[in-house]
Write a structure and sequence with these properties.
By secondary structure, this protein is α/β, with parallel strands linked by helices. The strands form 6 sheets. Strands 1, 4, 5, 6, 8, 9, 10, 11, 12 and 13 form a 10-stranded mixed sheet that branches. Strands 15-18-21-24-25 form a 5-stranded mixed sheet. α3 crosses α6. The protein is built from 7 helices and 25 strands.
Length: 308
């Protein structure tokens, strides 16, 4: 099985962090999120990838290359004009060799066990399966309602509005290549394809998965994901948290009296005397001269408010 990683988004809500990198390149525990995605999917047996690119593509393509240093193969699909999820997926389907494939978002942290999800999809007979999860605010996040057989029968405003056991969509799909016929050249797959299928009682399934999930779309979400990784509340493949709930690069210079609490501190950071860093991210090369709490400090000293 092959996988698509959607990486063409603009990253507007994370700027200035994403001024010069695409969203999938934002670091978690000091490593770009897209590398964690590759590691996880490779551990699940996937070694062939298609990645779509639009905004600021060069850093991502330079970092991953052809995938060989991660023991995978990557094919890139540049979008001069952003195609949206439907158009992006349709554009990459030829690379899937006419087989069932996985689609994941490059700007979320989500690492479920894939074999069980694929098995559920195959049993459903669906053209596409949406991987969903329980959420208290599922209605606000785009309600997905399932019937007793696991078929999607409510999706946002479409379908059976009497279904009240709702889930949120994780952005992970399992798709049959024949769905290509129902995908537009440009647009959102939920609006353009899945909602019409739900309205016509089409073969679209929902698979419930409650693994840890973090959307990295806002500054607050991004900060919280890093802090939970540091504290061991979210597991990453090959990462072992420290007992003090910090991630501190070995090159950090921490002066007398300086303290760090549940934070991620990058390479060659300087923390001056008696400074307290709490629940924050400090990028490589920054100099911290005053106390910070719930901040994201970029390498050039730019301060981002982690409460946003």
């Amino acid at each position: 099985m092959k996988a698509m990683i959607l990486a063409a988004g603009l990253g507007t809500r994370l700027r200035p962090l994403t001024n010069n990198i695409p969203k999938p390149m934002v670091p978690l525990a000091g490593i770009p999120n897209i590398e964690w995605i590759l590691r996880h999917l490779k551990n699940q047996g996937i070694t062939e990838f298609a990645i779509n690119l639009h905004y600021c593509p060069k850093p991502l393509q330079t970092y991953l290359g052809d995938g060989s240093r991660f023991s995978v193969h990557i094919e890139y699909f540049h979008e001069p004009e952003i195609l949206g999820t439907a158009g992006g997926i349709k554009n990459m389907i030829p690379a899937m060799d006419d087989e069932t494939f996985i689609v994941v978002n490059g700007d979320v942290l989500f690492m479920p066990h894939l074999p069980s999800l694929i098995n559920c999809h195959k049993k459903s007979g669906a053209l596409a399966s949406m991987v969903v999860r329980p959420a208290d605010n599922a209605e606000a996040l785009g309600a997905v309602g399932l019937n007793h057989t696991g078929q999607v029968r409510r999706l946002v405003w479409a379908g059976d509005q009497n279904i009240d056991e709702l889930y949120m969509f994780t952005g992970m799909h399992i798709i049959e290549p024949s769905l290509r016929q129902q995908l537009p050249d440009k647009g959102c797959i939920v609006r353009s394809t899945y909602i019409p299928m739900v309205e016509q009682n089409g073969p679209i399934a929902g698979i419930i998965e409650d693994s840890a999930f973090r959307d990295l779309g806002t500054k607050g979400d991004y900060l919280d994901a890093n802090l939970q990784i540091a504290s061991g509340n979210i597991a990453l493949p090959g990462f072992t948290p420290r007992p003090d709930d910090n991630i501190i690069h070995e090159t950090v210079m921490q002066a007398n009296g300086a303290t760090v609490e549940n934070s991620v501190i990058g390479e060659n950071v300087i923390i001056e005397s008696n400074i307290h860093v709490r629940q924050s991210i400090v990028m490589a090369g920054a100099v911290i001269k005053e106390d910070i709490c719930r901040k994201i400090i970029l390498s050039d000293g730019t301060v981002m408010n982690g409460a946003e």
